[in-house]
User: Fold this.
Amino acid sequence: MIYDFAEGRSGENARHFVGDWRGSLVCDDFSGYKAMIAQGVTEVGCMAHARRKFFDLHVANKSQIAEYALGLIGQLYEIECEAKALDSTSRQALRQLRAQPIADALFEWMRLQRLKITDGSATARALDYTLKRWQALTRYIGDVQLPIDNNWIENQIRPIAIGRSNWLFAGSLRAGKRAAAVMSLIQSAKMNGHDPYAYIKDVLTRLPTQKASQIEELLPHRWQAPHER
Assistant:
């Protein structure tokens, strides 16, 4: 996993980070991603963001429209829970057989509801967000490699996001980039099943005498604990 640090939220930072990469990007509707998508990156919507629009609407006024939308979106998530235990071929078949009809029904229902709703209302905004991004939100159904949402990665970065609000500043751009590099190593160590503290301690101990030709041995996916070497 790689973290990056930038001085602002400009879309140019995201474009610089991905470079010539042209894969599938699971994201929300942040305008900074639009230029990348126009240049060939495939937009994949995060269903959790769409769901949150209706969830907030239901919490605010017990909207029946929001409740119905949440019910159908919930069915899509139930299917994904079943799909996790399946191989790719079976997962794809399950999505096509069960998720696609539900998605089609939800889209048509939202389209009809939108015709009855006044522009600018909270309900209209929730419907507009989801309808506008529907192709991206349902792209996962046709590609077994794609997730229904971006929750997994958001859970990985949540400690950093919470910390950021407490730290307030990194001190400088250089310090921020250093922090991103350290966070990348720590998170990658965790993803490879290592104790982050043991990993960092061992790397810092070995680093001064490690041969330049063997430096890759200290990367999280290559590292071995002292008792394994």
In short: Residues 167-228 form one domain. The chain is about 60% helix and 5% strand.
